[in-house]
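quick one: iron/sulfur cluster bound model?
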Amino acid sequence: MEGNTAAARSPQREVVEEVVIRFAGDSGDGMQVTGAQFTQETAIFGNDLATFPDFPAEIRAPVGTTFGVSAFQIHFGSHEVRTSGDAPDVLVAMNPAALKVSLDDLKVGGMIVLDEGTFNRRNIAKAGFDSNPLEDDTLAPYQTLRLDISKMTLEAVKDLDLSKKESLRCKNFWTLGLMLWMYDRDRRATVEWLNKKFSKRPEIAKANVTALNAGHAFGETAELSSNLVGFTVAKTDVAPGVYRTVTGTEALAWGLVVGARAAGLKIMLGSYPITPASPLLHNLANLKAYGVTTFQAEDEIAAVCSAIGASYAGALGVTSSSGPGIALKTEAIGLAISTELPLVIVNTQRAGPSTGLPTKTEQSDLYLAVYGRNADAPLPVLAASTPTDCFEVAIESVRIATKYMTPVMLLTEGYLANAAEPWRIPDTDDLPSFPVKFRTDPEGFQPFARNADTLARPWAIPGTPGLEHRIGGLEKDSVTGNISYDAENHQHMTDVRAAKIAGIARDIPQQEIQCGEETDVMVLVGWGSTFGPINQAVRQAREEGHSVAHIHIRYIVPLPSNLGDLLNGFDRVLVPEMNNGQLLTLLRSTYAIDAEGLNKVSGKPFRVSEILDAIRTRMGDAS
Amino acid sequence: MEGNTAAARSPQREVVEEVVIRFAGDSGDGMQVTGAQFTQETAIFGNDLATFPDFPAEIRAPVGTTFGVSAFQIHFGSHEVRTSGDAPDVLVAMNPAALKVSLDDLKVGGMIVLDEGTFNRRNIAKAGFDSNPLEDDTLAPYQTLRLDISKMTLEAVKDLDLSKKESLRCKNFWTLGLMLWMYDRDRRATVEWLNKKFSKRPEIAKANVTALNAGHAFGETAELSSNLVGFTVAKTDVAPGVYRTVTGTEALAWGLVVGARAAGLKIMLGSYPITPASPLLHNLANLKAYGVTTFQAEDEIAAVCSAIGASYAGALGVTSSSGPGIALKTEAIGLAISTELPLVIVNTQRAGPSTGLPTKTEQSDLYLAVYGRNADAPLPVLAASTPTDCFEVAIESVRIATKYMTPVMLLTEGYLANAAEPWRIPDTDDLPSFPVKFRTDPEGFQPFARNADTLARPWAIPGTPGLEHRIGGLEKDSVTGNISYDAENHQHMTDVRAAKIAGIARDIPQQEIQCGEETDVMVLVGWGSTFGPINQAVRQAREEGHSVAHIHIRYIVPLPSNLGDLLNGFDRVLVPEMNNGQLLTLLRSTYAIDAEGLNKVSGKPFRVSEILDAIRTRMGDAS
Amino acid sequence: MTGTATGQLTAKDFTTDQEVRWCPGCGDYAILKCVQRTLPELGVRRENTVFVSGIGCAARFPYYMSTYGFHTIHGRAPAIATGIKLANPDLDVWIVTGDGDALSIGGNHLIHVLRRNVDVQILLFNNEIYGLTKGQYSPTSRRGTRSPSTPKGSVENPISAAALALGAGGRFVARTVDTHQKRMPQILKRAYEHRGASLVEILQNCNVFNDKVFSHITDKSVAVERQLHLEHGKPLLYGADDSHGLRVTPGKFELEAVTIGENGITQDDILIHDETNRTLASLLAVMEPPALPVALGVIYCDPAPTYGDGVKQQEEVADGEASIESLLRGGDRTWTVMG
Amino acid sequence: MTGTATGQLTAKDFTTDQEVRWCPGCGDYAILKCVQRTLPELGVRRENTVFVSGIGCAARFPYYMSTYGFHTIHGRAPAIATGIKLANPDLDVWIVTGDGDALSIGGNHLIHVLRRNVDVQILLFNNEIYGLTKGQYSPTSRRGTRSPSTPKGSVENPISAAALALGAGGRFVARTVDTHQKRMPQILKRAYEHRGASLVEILQNCNVFNDKVFSHITDKSVAVERQLHLEHGKPLLYGADDSHGLRVTPGKFELEAVTIGENGITQDDILIHDETNRTLASLLAVMEPPALPVALGVIYCDPAPTYGDGVKQQEEVADGEASIESLLRGGDRTWTVMG
Ligand SMILES: Cc1ncc(C[n+]2csc(CCOP(=O)(O)OP(=O)(O)O)c2C)c(N)n1
Ligand SMILES: Cc1ncc(C[n+]2csc(CCOP(=O)(O)OP(=O)(O)O)c2C)c(N)n1
Ligand code: SF4
Ligand code: SF4
Ligand SMILES: [Mg+2]
Ligand SMILES: [Mg+2]
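yep, here:
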């Protein structure tokens, strides 16, 4: 599809550079779909954007409660967008509970679009308001657009022979229509999507399309008759190419497939469902046509073991989970390290400890990734920093795992898994190729003889005549792989396992400074999903005149070889993390530098302002 | 029992200050028993000592092979003894294989006592000798005592109506008798032990006693007729008191029992067999009379979970394992941290990674202990440094676990578990008391309201009327313990969990310098079983004039509050560890100091000389 | 929620102030209500009762019971419960678990708690799906189940909780249905009275991810033809007016459905339920419509000594109060160094 | 050990140069010999054969087979084997495991590999003890077993591997004895030929920690009276001159031992073995002397589609070669920004 023929421009449209909208409603209100469609139309229109879906822990929380609120935030603009936004400019509240939980976040002076039809006494009480917020001064600091969306939706679809319940289900599309009008976006992709999605129930498709159009029409009409204002957010200037929006999960799944193709391998994913990692399993389960086998194992241990078995037999073994599930894989990962088999372990981190807050985001499994195994058992650790970055990090993980015959830990986060952003689809010709060469020649074959360069042992898979051999988790002779209790051999193998992983530093890019200069006074060092807020904060601080830079680390083990020198060049190193200081530990111990942490462990991403404040505090007035 | 009436002194006895003897033979030769009895008699005689039992990985390796050799080394002296000795002065070799594997370690000029009767062509070949070492110059650098022990044993017991096989089984007691004569030790405890052990088969007891006496008599007679020399090692000057020898396992088991008594609790040990941790399970399984229940679970996960359940219900839950098994407990330990229940987790470390070298020693699970969990999940980590130290560390672990309502990780090592040393049995009156007070008062009860001082939550156990409440692994409200998804609450709980553990630093002793001065130039910092070799090496280095000190850390998390200042006082910090630098990471990251590692990962303890050499290299000539 | 729980308690006394957070319409509500109603009838004390659960929708159960409650980790409730019983055998311990929790990740602990015969009640809420993680198929899902992780349908054979329990050596196996508010209390009572591990499988509707998966046996229109309510010592009859029954296929180790009055079949041909017969139980456990009705009620009950009995016996011999003095100085291997 | 393994192979071709390190006299030696002898008879190729094991004495097995071999971690061999089969369904995969490995820590993987019917052969060396860790009791140890962790005797009921496998839905269950060098090859062959998961329990003597634990059935003096060798379609006879047999206790789901010629019993009263009858199998699985003989041979064999079949079918539909282009640009949600 092509182009972004916008709706007829209205003369009154205000031009804004960027906007943050939060859609909030009951979990049954379809807010995630609404947000996703708004995102899609916004992306097609040509804005850069970032999103933050935030859904409740319960499957179906009781209607009308605050803990049942599902929200979707989108930040888009005519310039580059790095975060989903600290505070919404616009809040779409489908019921009192949605208003209640989001009000504190809304910008003072911001706009509230709410469905008046849901503000009955029962709902207001359930939301925990003492009195009706529409009648007291709760909403005084904001511009409020009170609409009886429920009623208008029922009105719009009344001729379509739906039950009241079904009719009310179209509310979100009415609202979406209005918001698309407000920001001057097309509706075509949404209409197509609805028709496809409900191809077996065309009456439902029709009702939703009708509601969508009605909401849109309401905007156009009301604009003329009332104070309703439309906005224009100009297209972002982006590189030409074919685009789509992707969530981190999609990008990760595709990256694994592309990586496996580059290696010439099939994928065998062994996994066990767990929030927020399951979507990767679901996604890959749909990719059988791309050479992917998925196995839902009886538990996480069986999941990782099946992946190890698959790698042993010549596929790319992949296993995915989140914190508690990764913890269970600990012992088996040691086996993969000891037998030196490729394996990609994806950890979609969530808030902990223990079961913690499964639906909340955090980046607190770095310790587990880097240090969490018995004995000296090093493995490479990579971390994705944005939804689209997941694609490249996945490819890199496959490359390193197969080239170095090692398990690789890929860290992503609940936030990244669900968030979406526009992605320029790479040209298939530009995709990498790093074909695996299985050992086939029996001549001089030794299971643990190493490539002098990479220190990788050969990958010799069952089915190959003449290479029959035995491997296992006991310490092995450094050449034959037979069990060896020899003291020197154990020392040697320990050293060589460490050297192999350390040596990968020669095969990864030098660390770049994402923003700022080597000569700045302070540097903020981050990893993972904090990329957006750190980058944005550093840019703003620089605009304020602070001598501060941003370094964001993708390769956590081994660290890029120039990182130490880089860091030593700054007077001050500040490490913002959504944990209690885990990368911090790694940097302090690796470089013996007195870096400082900026830690947030609340299940929520950093706000730009939090980081900016931290910079200001440390840098004093602009220098 | 009392006293140490030695055998009649012979005029020719040479006086030596210390001696290292290694008993080595086939796994069926009873070398561990021989070593243990020699140890017992030596302890009773009044020498300080340290031992190193080293047995093969196989249950019963084929007879005569080198990998089937079982060895027991003892170091004793008239002064304080800190290690089991770098190199034996005396090697007792019961067959060619035993000679083969120990020869390289023996001191040049050292003595070999060997059983000539086993040096037939077959055994010599099996041991991997190209020619008969008794006939070539292999033994030239040593004093060799060739005795046909087999024959002399058969001779000694020939009237006792035993089969040849049974008769030959007495060889080790013949040898023990000779060695007891040689070092002027009593035989009484051994005779008593034999009579008790074989009370149901008195003919076997008698045969062994006969062999023992025959070996002893051989010494006395040969001394007069040949060049055989006896030695005297004077008693060590030790504090008065009642003594016994203990292995680390015994001391640990007893420490747990004493700790539980101090807390007023019963012990529930949930465990699953694994080398070298099983002996603790076996030991505690025999202590039912002391309020210990042991549960051999279906796996390590069930083991730790049963211990958590037991703690929840008001017992002291204990779980024990080694590296791979501890790895499996990772997820459940997170639950204990999150629900803030007391628990003692004993990790008897072995060589890794993965299955590794189960019978070899290592200290490479510090990372796993300190960092090996999903999310921010801190817990106290303590490490024992000598067999007898296990006693106190166990008591401390119980104290901290119950006082702070937290799981505690207790690190010990395969080496410590099996090694023995003399122990001055504490006076029962001197044992600590720290009775647990279960919450019973329903008035104002809140499951997560904390003691202002310790930050511990109350221990409210099922069965208590009025305190019914629910706990679990989801994040909890900081007071009620009910599930809370609140962002600030999660931040608060994360902070308070960290603060509780950090606060234990106020409740543990300040770090002492084990040897040397604050003003020294270099400090060696160790933990665990390296105590002996580091201490000995530092003492020797100081005698050579090097300005070097020794700090040994028992409390790894939290570190003693004065440790940073202490370390900063030295120009150089060297951290010898039997791993690839794990305490090193902790020290570097905690204090941002450029400490250096001295690492050995061969499955064998450090030699004093290795550490001494490292000191010399770094300190240059004595300053 | 404070105060000693003695005297006549009611369902309300077993209710907490926590808002129940299952989906509206979930079968878990009915089970909760039933348990809260039954406990007072059993005369249990609140403070003496512990609900232990793993993770899953079902596993949220303890939060709603005003007894002691421990919401543990996925699959491990049987192990935690075993520890609780070892520390305090006097507690009444109930395990609440789902089909994924009990039979997928927790399968090993389940078979071992049954084998050891630890004295606990296990309520297994079987909705043939992973509810909490949003609808993946579970080990009890039927072949062909389409779910997010099996978009083309699952290719695995479902496991039968009851058959597995019998294979593992369980001594009490029963089955009921979430909506059976009259019959469930009887079964809970039997489970509670059985000394040893009691497994109660409860067919539970997950109306969000697996709605109506049991409707072929629970729908009013078919219930009477497809449910056989077991009673020890009574003939295995079912259907309207007990028109159908089960008999042993002559010469075979098989059960077959017969109609009274057809082909000369009389009541006398119908097999009598014997709770203590493991083989019969194995056959009843796996019956499925349409060929056979689903067996509900107590499938197997044949008490044996509990794990706790064995442990206690050894501990009584040992007595548990020996002195530290005897521990540290015991044996004959000590010596004294004089001052 | 190099060179393609085709043509007539011998036991020696399946032997490695690694010194076998079991205790002298261990039953494992006999099993190893038997497997090495049988594989050539099955006509398998060395390079196509993988032995996967967990941890334990038994689990050292792969080191001695000159095929591909993977000595994994404790209890997890079935999961690793499942991954191997998913990656390459053409491989012959044998799992070697001990009673602790398979039934204690690995119990869950065992039941799931059986339930899924993954096409592997599982050789379970049951010595009723943990050999490698020096003699603790295992889940198959009899009640009262004294061991380092149960100095006063264990208080747990042993599990029956065969009964558990049947309860889990296994489709092939057999049993043999380490020293049965003549019969074992037949059983291995049957296991190999069975498409799906085949469980072969091998009673194995651990002469160091549990010596003679099977002597009550294997001793020459009692063997003939206490071993029943099953043959499909043949009557369940045993004893000298087939003097004894099994029949169904009239009116009960039970088996009883009878003597031909006594109380009017004739050959006709004796039950015929039907491998495909799961209920009969459940009864045979748990028979124990002295009341009943131990059942040896193929207890149950009733093939069903394998897990691999189901997976393959879905993959064939999907074809597995779709282009990356279609992956990244597929669907209708892309747009173009012009240069
Ligand atoms: C170690 C671990 N793995 C996975 C999960 C995710 N998880 C939570 S509940 C569940 C399965 C729930 O299914 P079931 O036990 O049938 O309970 P239901 O929700 O259907 O009542 C899973 C996979 C987890 N919490 N912990
Ligand atoms: C995770 C883990 N837990 C425990 C062990 C220790 N371990 C090794 S083998 C074994 C049991 C062996 O028993 P079995 O499976 O019956 O094999 P056998 O030695 O009797 O042949 C145990 C407990 C281990 N290696 N890994
Ligand atoms: S997802 Fe299903 S099982 Fe879970 S609460 Fe909702 S309806 Fe009940
Ligand atoms: S311990 Fe037992 S099972 Fe293991 S090798 Fe020795 S005899 Fe065999
Ligand atoms: Mg379920
Ligand atoms: Mg065994």
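The radius of gyration of chain D is 23 Å.
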